[in-house]
């Protein structure tokens, strides 16, 4: 496959062409202001209540994408559990249509800048840089039959795009398609500007569920009357109608088509490139961006027009997904602080159910389709992420509540083979990268219903390699915390504190979402993090505790482990067991003295726990902890008041009355991890969610 032409490169080539010719342009004065329309309310169409998840063809297949490849992708996503994990939308990007509509027999004319040739009222070519000019194309977009052939399904002939929509739906998936609010798409195919009603009606009729709406204004750089070079901003209506307005036009056309056809509404994703500033003196006076309260409140910087960059201000007013940065590459830096993360943190107000800041397609698991990386293609711009970086990318997107849309090649190794210079390789995603995508705990953070994105903890990093910490409040009261090592070469210790996180409780249970490791946090949260790696935690407030009421009452008590059906702590082998016996759980019998325990306070605030045995071998044995996690708790007839292994901290949940028993020497918790009778009682790392670490007095 040939690499798809980067959109930014096409824009740059147009600019270089003009610079080489030494031409400049002078634009007309602004359009007189007209009566202001009613300010628009934020888009709330009931769609995309959580960030959309799925796949987009661009990063791996570019303009060479075919129907067969998309079918292979749908099959792979369905069979490999990606759809079940939430990745339910498959989208075809630029290049799916012919370069003319069905009202023409030849491709539309382009000028020297790659822009659509516009014409005046007499059908004479015009530059369009003063905002005038007409697009003479008519009719419907045509799926390229060479790549997207028609099929007959249930006696009905479906064009190649309709067929893929039907096929995706048959697998329980949704289908997405690409369009632009400009005269041409980024790869030079017909855009939807001026054809909004026609294209929207076709998309809805074809069963499209999701539209990626791009912005590709080709044309010469424009120097205004103020002498300022505004760069390439487009031509004709691209200059007089804001991106806000053009997006709103298409969104309303989609809604109208859905209503007219009795079909579901369509999710709209804006992929606008924030480099475009617009021309304030050409923007129509009645453009809705001028009066939208969100845009007005944000203000418009000098030499910009309302409704252009940054999309993080206005996009949620007219679309469900909002690109906040340019096209990303496979390097992790694109989502780190000096990349799109910093931008995402600036616009939290654009994030809510139905509106999401989009940080571009994911490169997790992407492999170089242009050559065998490191052999036939050594460009660092095509270097794939390793699994550590893939986890980091997904973690940052999840923390910012960004859409999770993969650009990797989600096909089998056989379907995704390439050959070049005598080498054959596959771009199909690896099993380890596939596991990254399917991490349910990380997905749950991304999809959290509170829709409150992450904030930065502490000051911004001073350099691109400094670590950073993010936190995100979740709907059930939990807090997600991400420790990020931005250094690509060195392992770093990254840490924060409960105070810095704004958490005021006495302690929190934690789960690291990539390793599954659990524990309790009472002060500092930290980890040794690999280069370009992360540690991602979900913190849950530990219950309010008080000193246990069993301490110092002079009585012996049975204590039952949670999750064991009422089984209690006992000396293994009962009171006839030898000195140094271990402990287990067993059925509660109140006359079994081996199942009864007394809790006596030590002078240092700790607790001494003894059994009720009084035999030749067991004489009020002292509960003693092992040195390492997973080892069984045991009982010794002798008691050493200086041994921390024989001392415990026992607290009681103020709400439930359950006890937590923690060894002073190790900080490990008394745990019954198995429910089978006579299963060992061990010491484990504290985990507030572990039932076996919750002990309830039964006598």
UniProtKB/TrEMBL annotation:
<dbReference type="InterPro" id="IPR017853">
    <property type="entry name" value="GH"/>
</dbReference>
<dbReference type="GO" id="GO:0004557">
    <property type="term" value="F:alpha-galactosidase activity"/>
</dbReference>
<dbReference type="InterPro" id="IPR006311">
    <property type="entry name" value="TAT_signal"/>
</dbReference>
<feature type="region of interest" description="Disordered">
    <location>
        <begin position="675"/>
        <end position="699"/>
    </location>
</feature>
<dbReference type="Pfam" id="PF16499">
    <property type="entry name" value="Melibiase_2"/>
</dbReference>
<feature type="domain" description="Alpha galactosidase C-terminal">
    <location>
        <begin position="469"/>
        <end position="539"/>
    </location>
</feature>
<dbReference type="GO" id="GO:0005975">
    <property type="term" value="P:carbohydrate metabolic process"/>
</dbReference>
<dbReference type="Pfam" id="PF17801">
    <property type="entry name" value="Melibiase_C"/>
</dbReference>
<dbReference type="InterPro" id="IPR041233">
    <property type="entry name" value="Melibiase_C"/>
</dbReference>
<keyword id="KW-0378">Hydrolase</keyword>
<protein>
    <recommendedName>
        <fullName>Alpha-galactosidase</fullName>
        <ecNumber>3.2.1.22</ecNumber>
    </recommendedName>
</protein>
<keyword id="KW-1015">Disulfide bond</keyword>
<dbReference type="InterPro" id="IPR013780">
    <property type="entry name" value="Glyco_hydro_b"/>
</dbReference>
<dbReference type="InterPro" id="IPR013785">
    <property type="entry name" value="Aldolase_TIM"/>
</dbReference>
<keyword id="KW-0732">Signal</keyword>
<feature type="signal peptide">
    <location>
        <begin position="1"/>
        <end position="25"/>
    </location>
</feature>
<dbReference type="InterPro" id="IPR002241">
    <property type="entry name" value="Glyco_hydro_27"/>
</dbReference>
<dbReference type="InterPro" id="IPR035992">
    <property type="entry name" value="Ricin_B-like_lectins"/>
</dbReference>
<comment type="similarity">
    <text>Belongs to the glycosyl hydrolase 27 family.</text>
</comment>
<keyword id="KW-0326">Glycosidase</keyword>
<dbReference type="InterPro" id="IPR000111">
    <property type="entry name" value="Glyco_hydro_27/36_CS"/>
</dbReference>
